[in-house]
Write a structure and sequence with these properties.
With 220 residues, the chain is mainly α. It has helices at 2-11, 24-34, 39-52, 56-71, 77-94, 103-107, 114-123, 134-142, 151-161, 167-180, 195-198, 201-212. It has two domains: 2-13 and 131-210, Endonuclease Iii, domain 2; 24-123, Endonuclease III, domain 1 (Orthogonal Bundle), CATH 1.10.340. The longest helix is centred in the middle third of the chain and has 18 residues, at 77-94.
Length: 220
Protein backbone atom coordinates (compact mmCIF):
# COMPACT_ATOMS: atom_id res chain seq x y z
CA UNK A 1 0.00 0.00 0.00
CA UNK A 2 2.79 2.43 0.86
CA UNK A 3 4.48 1.94 -2.49
CA UNK A 4 1.20 2.56 -4.31
CA UNK A 5 0.62 5.73 -2.29
CA UNK A 6 4.10 6.97 -3.20
CA UNK A 7 3.49 6.33 -6.92
CA UNK A 8 0.15 8.12 -6.81
CA UNK A 9 1.76 11.07 -5.02
CA UNK A 10 4.54 11.25 -7.57
CA UNK A 11 2.22 11.13 -10.60
CA UNK A 12 -0.75 13.09 -9.23
CA UNK A 13 0.41 15.18 -6.26
CA UNK A 14 -2.52 17.63 -6.34
CA UNK A 15 -5.36 15.94 -8.24
CA UNK A 16 -8.20 18.30 -9.20
CA UNK A 17 -11.87 17.43 -8.98
CA UNK A 18 -12.68 16.41 -12.59
CA UNK A 19 -16.17 17.91 -12.58
CA UNK A 20 -16.45 21.67 -13.06
CA UNK A 21 -18.37 23.36 -10.25
CA UNK A 22 -18.51 26.53 -8.18
CA UNK A 23 -19.90 25.44 -4.83
CA UNK A 24 -21.45 22.45 -3.02
CA UNK A 25 -24.74 22.73 -4.93
CA UNK A 26 -23.20 22.76 -8.40
CA UNK A 27 -20.87 19.92 -7.39
CA UNK A 28 -23.86 17.90 -6.22
CA UNK A 29 -25.67 18.46 -9.51
CA UNK A 30 -22.57 17.64 -11.55
CA UNK A 31 -22.03 14.35 -9.70
CA UNK A 32 -25.68 13.38 -10.17
CA UNK A 33 -25.27 14.06 -13.89
CA UNK A 34 -22.06 12.00 -14.08
CA UNK A 35 -23.75 8.64 -13.44
CA UNK A 36 -23.26 6.44 -16.54
CA UNK A 37 -21.86 9.47 -18.36
CA UNK A 38 -18.31 10.72 -18.85
CA UNK A 39 -17.08 13.73 -16.90
CA UNK A 40 -16.15 15.30 -20.23
CA UNK A 41 -19.77 15.17 -21.36
CA UNK A 42 -20.99 16.57 -18.04
CA UNK A 43 -18.50 19.44 -18.23
CA UNK A 44 -19.85 20.31 -21.67
CA UNK A 45 -23.42 20.83 -20.46
CA UNK A 46 -23.03 22.27 -16.97
CA UNK A 47 -21.65 25.76 -17.81
CA UNK A 48 -24.89 26.81 -19.51
CA UNK A 49 -27.01 24.97 -16.94
CA UNK A 50 -25.26 26.66 -14.02
CA UNK A 51 -25.40 30.04 -15.70
CA UNK A 52 -29.15 29.66 -16.03
CA UNK A 53 -29.63 28.18 -12.56
CA UNK A 54 -26.72 28.62 -10.14
CA UNK A 55 -28.80 28.10 -6.97
CA UNK A 56 -31.33 25.54 -5.74
CA UNK A 57 -34.11 28.11 -6.02
CA UNK A 58 -33.22 28.94 -9.63
CA UNK A 59 -32.78 25.26 -10.53
CA UNK A 60 -36.16 24.38 -9.07
CA UNK A 61 -37.59 27.25 -11.06
CA UNK A 62 -36.28 25.78 -14.30
CA UNK A 63 -38.23 22.61 -13.64
CA UNK A 64 -37.75 19.26 -15.29
CA UNK A 65 -38.24 20.48 -18.85
CA UNK A 66 -36.00 23.50 -18.44
CA UNK A 67 -33.21 21.37 -17.01
CA UNK A 68 -33.70 18.73 -19.69
CA UNK A 69 -33.11 21.29 -22.44
CA UNK A 70 -29.61 21.82 -21.05
CA UNK A 71 -28.65 18.20 -20.35
CA UNK A 72 -30.33 16.31 -23.21
CA UNK A 73 -27.00 14.88 -24.46
CA UNK A 74 -26.24 13.30 -21.08
CA UNK A 75 -27.12 9.67 -20.43
CA UNK A 76 -30.46 9.06 -18.69
CA UNK A 77 -31.24 12.76 -19.14
CA UNK A 78 -35.04 12.65 -18.53
CA UNK A 79 -34.71 10.89 -15.18
CA UNK A 80 -31.76 13.04 -14.12
CA UNK A 81 -33.65 16.22 -15.01
CA UNK A 82 -36.57 15.11 -12.85
CA UNK A 83 -34.26 14.20 -9.95
CA UNK A 84 -32.33 17.47 -10.12
CA UNK A 85 -35.51 19.56 -10.23
CA UNK A 86 -36.88 17.75 -7.18
CA UNK A 87 -33.64 17.73 -5.19
CA UNK A 88 -33.26 21.47 -5.81
CA UNK A 89 -36.81 22.06 -4.60
CA UNK A 90 -36.24 20.00 -1.48
CA UNK A 91 -32.94 21.72 -0.70
CA UNK A 92 -34.72 25.06 -0.95
CA UNK A 93 -37.77 24.05 1.08
CA UNK A 94 -36.29 21.61 3.61
CA UNK A 95 -32.76 22.94 4.04
CA UNK A 96 -33.11 26.68 3.56
CA UNK A 97 -31.40 26.67 0.18
CA UNK A 98 -28.20 25.13 1.57
CA UNK A 99 -26.85 21.71 0.60
CA UNK A 100 -27.19 19.54 3.73
CA UNK A 101 -23.98 18.50 5.45
CA UNK A 102 -24.84 14.93 6.43
CA UNK A 103 -24.79 11.64 4.59
CA UNK A 104 -28.31 10.84 5.74
CA UNK A 105 -29.81 14.09 4.46
CA UNK A 106 -27.93 13.96 1.17
CA UNK A 107 -28.83 10.34 0.46
CA UNK A 108 -32.48 11.18 1.10
CA UNK A 109 -32.46 13.50 -1.94
CA UNK A 110 -33.64 12.16 -5.34
CA UNK A 111 -30.85 10.70 -7.47
CA UNK A 112 -28.27 10.91 -4.68
CA UNK A 113 -26.65 7.63 -3.66
CA UNK A 114 -23.86 6.94 -1.20
CA UNK A 115 -21.10 7.58 -3.73
CA UNK A 116 -22.52 10.98 -4.71
CA UNK A 117 -23.00 11.93 -1.06
CA UNK A 118 -19.43 10.85 -0.32
CA UNK A 119 -18.05 13.11 -3.06
CA UNK A 120 -19.93 16.15 -1.74
CA UNK A 121 -19.15 15.44 1.91
CA UNK A 122 -15.44 14.98 1.26
CA UNK A 123 -14.74 17.55 -1.43
CA UNK A 124 -17.10 20.34 -0.33
CA UNK A 125 -17.27 19.90 3.43
CA UNK A 126 -13.99 18.18 4.31
CA UNK A 127 -15.67 15.21 5.98
CA UNK A 128 -13.58 12.03 5.60
CA UNK A 129 -15.15 9.86 2.91
CA UNK A 130 -13.85 7.50 0.23
CA UNK A 131 -16.20 7.58 -2.79
CA UNK A 132 -16.04 4.28 -4.66
CA UNK A 133 -17.58 3.64 -8.07
CA UNK A 134 -16.96 0.85 -10.57
CA UNK A 135 -13.72 2.48 -11.75
CA UNK A 136 -12.21 2.67 -8.25
CA UNK A 137 -13.50 -0.86 -7.62
CA UNK A 138 -11.63 -2.09 -10.71
CA UNK A 139 -8.38 -0.35 -9.79
CA UNK A 140 -8.47 -1.63 -6.21
CA UNK A 141 -8.82 -5.17 -7.56
CA UNK A 142 -5.97 -4.72 -10.05
CA UNK A 143 -3.71 -3.25 -7.37
CA UNK A 144 -4.42 -6.14 -5.01
CA UNK A 145 -5.91 -3.76 -2.45
CA UNK A 146 -9.27 -5.53 -2.32
CA UNK A 147 -10.88 -8.80 -3.32
CA UNK A 148 -14.33 -7.36 -2.78
CA UNK A 149 -17.29 -8.37 -4.90
CA UNK A 150 -18.89 -4.94 -4.95
CA UNK A 151 -18.26 -1.24 -4.36
CA UNK A 152 -19.57 -1.35 -0.79
CA UNK A 153 -16.99 -3.94 0.22
CA UNK A 154 -14.24 -2.17 -1.73
CA UNK A 155 -14.98 1.08 0.12
CA UNK A 156 -14.64 -0.79 3.41
CA UNK A 157 -11.29 -2.30 2.39
CA UNK A 158 -9.81 0.98 1.14
CA UNK A 159 -10.85 2.81 4.29
CA UNK A 160 -8.96 0.24 6.34
CA UNK A 161 -5.82 0.64 4.22
CA UNK A 162 -5.56 4.44 4.07
CA UNK A 163 -5.85 6.97 6.92
CA UNK A 164 -9.03 9.07 6.91
CA UNK A 165 -7.21 12.32 6.12
CA UNK A 166 -6.06 10.80 2.80
CA UNK A 167 -9.33 9.25 1.64
CA UNK A 168 -10.51 12.19 -0.48
CA UNK A 169 -7.10 12.72 -2.06
CA UNK A 170 -6.46 9.04 -2.83
CA UNK A 171 -9.92 8.80 -4.39
CA UNK A 172 -9.05 11.60 -6.82
CA UNK A 173 -5.56 10.21 -7.43
CA UNK A 174 -7.02 6.84 -8.39
CA UNK A 175 -9.46 8.51 -10.79
CA UNK A 176 -6.67 10.34 -12.61
CA UNK A 177 -4.32 7.34 -12.50
CA UNK A 178 -7.01 5.20 -14.11
CA UNK A 179 -7.41 7.71 -16.91
CA UNK A 180 -3.72 8.24 -17.60
CA UNK A 181 -2.09 4.90 -16.81
CA UNK A 182 -4.66 2.17 -16.09
CA UNK A 183 -7.60 2.18 -18.54
CA UNK A 184 -10.43 -0.31 -18.32
CA UNK A 185 -9.85 -1.76 -21.81
CA UNK A 186 -6.67 -2.61 -23.64
CA UNK A 187 -4.61 -2.23 -20.49
CA UNK A 188 -0.91 -3.08 -20.73
CA UNK A 189 -0.20 -4.54 -17.31
CA UNK A 190 3.54 -4.63 -17.89
CA UNK A 191 3.70 -0.92 -18.76
CA UNK A 192 1.56 0.21 -15.83
CA UNK A 193 3.49 1.85 -12.95
CA UNK A 194 1.45 -0.13 -10.41
CA UNK A 195 -0.02 -3.18 -12.13
CA UNK A 196 3.38 -4.20 -13.52
CA UNK A 197 4.36 -5.39 -10.04
CA UNK A 198 1.13 -5.34 -7.98
CA UNK A 199 -1.37 -7.16 -10.21
CA UNK A 200 -1.60 -10.87 -9.53
CA UNK A 201 -1.31 -13.50 -12.24
CA UNK A 202 -4.88 -14.50 -11.50
CA UNK A 203 -6.05 -10.94 -12.12
CA UNK A 204 -4.15 -10.77 -15.41
CA UNK A 205 -5.64 -14.07 -16.55
CA UNK A 206 -9.12 -13.00 -15.54
CA UNK A 207 -8.97 -9.78 -17.55
CA UNK A 208 -7.38 -11.55 -20.50
CA UNK A 209 -10.25 -14.06 -20.59
CA UNK A 210 -12.80 -11.26 -20.36
CA UNK A 211 -11.13 -9.41 -23.24
CA UNK A 212 -11.31 -12.50 -25.45
CA UNK A 213 -15.05 -12.94 -24.98
CA UNK A 214 -16.98 -11.95 -28.11
CA UNK A 215 -18.99 -8.74 -27.77
CA UNK A 216 -22.75 -9.12 -28.03
CA UNK A 217 -24.17 -7.64 -31.19
CA UNK A 218 -26.64 -4.80 -30.81
CA UNK A 219 -28.20 -5.49 -34.19
CA UNK A 220 -31.60 -7.21 -34.36
Amino acid sequence: MQRIAEILDALHPEPPIPLQHDDPFTLLVAVVLSAQTTDVRVNLVTPALFQAAPTPNAMAGLGREGILRHIRSVGLAPQKAANIAELARRIEVEHGGEVPRSFEALEALPGVGHKTASVVMSQSFGVPAFPVDTHIHRLAARFGLSRARNVVETERDLKLLFPPDLWAKVHLQMIWFGRTSCPARGHDFDACPVCSWAASKARRRSEARAARKPQKSSSP
